[in-house]
Design brief:
Blueprint lengths: L4 E5 L6 H12 L4 E11 L2 E9 L4 E6 L7 E2 L2 E3 L1 H11 L8 E7 L7 H13 L3 E5 L6 H7 L3 E5 L8 H12 L5
Parallel strand pairs: 1-8, 1-9, 2-7, 7-8
Antiparallel strand pairs: 2-3, 3-4, 4-6, 5-6
Helix pairs in contact: 1-5, 2-3
Length: about 180
């Protein structure tokens, strides 16, 4: 079975998001779709997460002040905002050569649209690079066990070299440069 996806995993704060952002930079000018997430901080404390589509769209994904709706830990999750970003960032319209997702995690998996689209991407064989939670069931567990993905552990020792390795892997395994 041809491998078409890399899943980057490791503990929070190890550098997975930074690695995905650097991969996106190195893939230019290829047609890349997807999104990254960023911590929101106030007075040095993390209060939420912003989701940022590679097309420039962004929304608050989760925040400590969100009332109602689903919660992950101390954060309320805005599934509707996530659905809007996912609809554009992970569209199955044939316009992307590579998809980048940060991350396949518990908050994101609250969205049925997200789960359906990531599942479709995994089934499609399209080139995909994603960060993925170290622990979790459902889609998280399923994605890690697929025979057509490689699971790479992000460490302090390897994180700086990962973007170059990911791009080289894509060139070799996923159809080469544009």
């Amino acid at each position: 079975m041809r491998k078409h996806a890399i899943l980057l995993t490791g503990p929070p704060g190890i550098g997975k998001t930074t690695a995905i952002r650097r991969v996106a930079e190195r893939l230019a000018p290829r047609r890349v779709r997807g999104f990254t997430t960023a911590e929101m901080r106030e007075k040095g404390e993390r209060v939420g997460f912003r989701i940022q589509g590679l097309d420039g769209r962004s929304a608050v994904l989760a925040h400590v002040d969100f009332a109602g709706g689903p919660r992950v830990g101390r954060y309320g999750v805005d599934v509707g905002a996530l659905d809007e970003i996912v609809a554009a960032a992970l569209a199955a319209d044939g316009s992307a050569e590579v998809f980048l997702i940060d991350e396949i995690g518990k908050m994101e998996c609250l969205s049925e649209r997200f789960v359906a689209r990531v599942t479709a991407l995994l089934e499609s064989g399209q080139p995909l690079v994603a960060t993925i939670a170290a622990r979790g069931g459902g889609l998280i567990e399923h994605a890690k066990r697929r025979a057509d993905v490689e699971l790479w552990q992000v460490t302090r020792e390897n994180r700086d070299g990962l973007p170059g390795r990911v791009v080289a892997w894509l060139d070799e395994h996923a159809g080469g440069p544009a």
